[in-house]
Write a structure and sequence with these properties.
By secondary structure, the protein is an alpha/beta fold. The chain folds into three domains: 2-79 and 170-181, Periplasmic binding protein-like II (D-Maltodextrin-Binding Protein, domain 2); 84-161, D-Maltodextrin-Binding Protein, domain 2 (3-Layer(aba) Sandwich), CATH 3.40.190.10; 190-267, Alpha-Beta Plaits. The chain has nine helices and 15 strands. It has helices spanning 12-20, 32-40, 60-68, 103-107, 110-115, 127-137, 148-154, 203-213, 244-257; strands at residues 2-6, 25-29, 46-53, 57-58, 71-80, 84-87, 98-101, 120-123, 142-146, 157-161, 170-178, 190-197, 217-225, 233-240, 258-267. The strands form three sheets. Strands 1, 2, 3, 4, 5 and 11 form a six-stranded mixed β-sheet that branches. Strands 8-7-9-6-10 form a five-stranded mixed β-sheet. A hairpin with a 3-residue loop joins strand 3 and strand 4 (57-58). Helix 8 (203-213) packs antiparallel against helix 9 (244-257).
Length: 274
């Protein structure tokens, strides 16, 4: 089995994919678009993508790509994000002058960086990629912030573990497949969908009232601009199922108020213990 991810080997996406598919071959892709294209063309069996971080918020590009491709969400999982200061073996914290990582990771380790003002924070395209570069350059005056898996994969040494500001740092990941390959299961309790409404008073309220009328619990709503149509928006929604029948009724009623409704997936909501 082949599973696509965006990012370098050793990234958090790599870790999340390995947790779900421990025996799979992981295919790293440079861009998120590459992930979706590989899946849509049948080059991989599935993909694992981050959709939301508990501190940084949604990965909005992935919502747009879910809408644009004929794929569906099969399941979701949660990954506890633990950041580590990683260096070339034999280096030490007092030698580090620069630290490289993804801007989100740097922002999530602000307190550590404030405690070490001599270390310059340098944005990089990927957490694991920063470790990869570090080990290629063998620069003992530099470090990277990434996962323990990245340190292990590239042979780096962890100088300081768990340096994130907030322990309640989780990323929610989706497993996606071609829509035709996703089968329904009895334990589904969550739905993700996208819809658009006409730009006139009361249409969004009417759409949202559909969920309340069917006893569904709306857990997330996100708006994104429609490409090429200024001031028009797509709304992305997650809601919990009361029953499968009520979910179907809610979708049918929603179509009466919306110009577009696309179900992105039905799946079992991830639990913290997972």
């Amino acid at each position: 089995m082949q599973v696509a991810i965006q990012g370098e080997p050793g990234s958090f996406s790599h870790e999340a994919a390995g947790n779900v598919f421990p025996e799979a071959t992981i295919l790293p892709c440079t861009l998120s678009l590459d992930v979706f294209q590989a899946l849509s063309k049948g080059g991989v069996d599935a993909a694992v993508i981050p959709i939301e971080n508990s501190l940084a918020g949604s990965v909005v590009e992935h919502y747009d790509l879910l809408l644009d491709h004929d794929v569906a969400i099969e399941s979701e999982s949660l990954l506890r994000i633990r950041h580590n200061l990683i260096a070339v073996p034999g280096s030490s914290l007092d030698r580090v002058q620069r630290v490289y990582s993804h801007p989100v990771a740097l922002a999530q380790c602000r307190k550590f960086l404030e405690q070490h003002p001599a270390i310059e924070a340098v944005p990089f395209y990927d957490t694991a990629g920063s470790v990869k570069q570090l080990m290629e350059l063998r620069d003992r005056n530099a470090a990277a912030i990434a996962s323990a898996r990245a340190a292990e994969y590239y042979g780096g040494e962890i100088l300081a573990a768990g340096i994130e500001d907030n322990a309640e740092n989780f990323t929610r990941f989706f497993v996606i497949r071609q829509r035709k390959d996703v089968s329904r299961s009895a334990d589904e309790d969550k739905v993700s969908l996208a819809f658009t409404v006409e730009n006139r008073p009361g249409t969004l309220v009417a759409a949202l009232e559909v969920f309340a009328s069917q006893g569904t619990n709306l857990t997330k709503i996100e708006s994104r601009p429609v490409q090429g149509k200024p001031w028009q928006y797509v709304f992305y929604v997650d809601f919990q199922l009361s029953t499968q029948v009520r979910a179907d009724i809610a979708l049918d009623l929603l179509r009466q108020h919306c110009s577009m409704v696309k179900e992105l997936g039905r799946y079992r909501a991830a639990r913290r213990s997972e």
